[in-house]
Amino acid sequence: MYRNKPRFDGNLYNQNIYCTQETPQENNNTLIYPDKMNYVVDVPINLAKSLEGKYFIGFADYLSFGEGTNTWARLYNPPDSGVNLHVTVWTVSDIASSYTAQIWFNTNAPGLVENSRNITPANTAMVPLPMPKIRLQYTNSTRGIPSGGVLAFLRRGQPGTTLVDDEQGKFIFPPGGSFTIFLSNPQTPSQFASASIAFGWWEEPR
Question: Which residues pair with 75 in a beta bridge?
Fold first, then answer.
């Protein structure tokens, strides 16, 4: 139907289309698209780090405390990691009693340390999958308290509520550093409790 395609001048919405009816058998596409589109977009930092294969998520579940004990989970940056840890988001959930969450920087956490295997890269389209340098560690039912480091801030939660903080990568820890969430229930210390703690973070080469 359309014999002559106009020259594309960069504007899809300002083209002059010249039509003839000399060859009605033709059925060419009347929409004109360039071979390539140039996009200008703002990419959120978390998406950018995921595209780079640097963003990871993980959790520690069934963390028991109460009855005079405490528990914690942390992101630990090993001394030989070669990366800086950027904490993006953390959550505390699944607690049936009132509780307090203390957030510690670079502290020595008490109790028997275990490594969580519940870690995955956020970008699962990469081949091979990126492997994290940061360790997600936790303990169960310890009677100790953190020593050294800095108690940066604390949050108090009510039964059945979830604490969520989006730090957007602003908490940064070098090799040997750590970001620890320490849980207790001082309001009901004789009551048993269980929690789940999750993290999102990215790793930046030094």
Answer: 136, 179
Q: What pTM was estimated for this model as a whole?
A: 0.80
Looking up tokens 């973070």, which residue turns up? Answer: 201
Helix (H, G, I), strand (E, B) or coil at 182: strand
Q: Say how many C-beta atoms besides its own lie within 10 A of residue 63's C-beta.
A: 24
Q: Tokens 């930046």, residue?
A: 204
Strands (E), the chain: 55-66, 70-76, 83-93, 99-105, 114-115, 119-121, 135-142, 150-157, 163-173, 178-184, 192-205
Mean pLDDT for the stretch of residues 2-30: 45
Lowest mean pLDDT among 16-30, 122-136, 150-164, 182-196: 16-30
**Closest residue by Cα to residue 73 from 52, 53, 95, 54:** 95
d(CA 204, CA 206): 6
Q: Confidence class of residue 2 from pLDDT cuts 50, 70 and 90?
A: very low
Residue type, 38: N
Q: How far apart are CA 10 and CA 48, in angstroms?
A: 28
Please give the distance of CA 17 from its chain centroid, rounded to a whole number.
49
CA 32/CA 15 separation, integer angstroms: 9
Listed in sequence order, the residues at least 6 apart from 140 whose beta carbon sits closer than 8 Å to its beta carbon are 62, 63, 64, 65, 71, 111, 112, 114
pLDDT in tens, 57-105: 999 999 999 998 999 999 999 999 999 999 999 999 999 999 999 999 9
